[in-house]
Write a structure and sequence with these properties.
This protein is mainly α. Helix content is about 65%, strand content about 5%.
Length: about 120
Amino acid sequence: MPSAWSVALAAAGFEVGLVNPRRIKAFREFEGRRAKTDRLDARLIARFALAMTDAIRPLPTAEQLALRALSTRRRQLTEMIAMEKTGLNKLPSPSCWTATVPPLPLSARNASTSKPS
């Protein structure tokens, strides 16, 4: 997820891209540099941006962020439903189910078994 700084810079008209920090660390190790200061890091990131243009990803659009949030929430709900079903299966008998937990709504039953479209 892009930071507020990267969104603000992009809105101000600057060219902004995202890079996995592990890629920059590997680039530093490839160069054989060990020292790590803010000034050296800034120079390293600049050299990385010039040398590895394919590693820089553009900022995600608002629609991509919304889709990512929906996908994350769906995954969380599916996991929660699975945990609840596991807990129900641990009850001594099915007659205890109605006494302890109301039945899952139809939409939740379908969400836990259906595949994303």
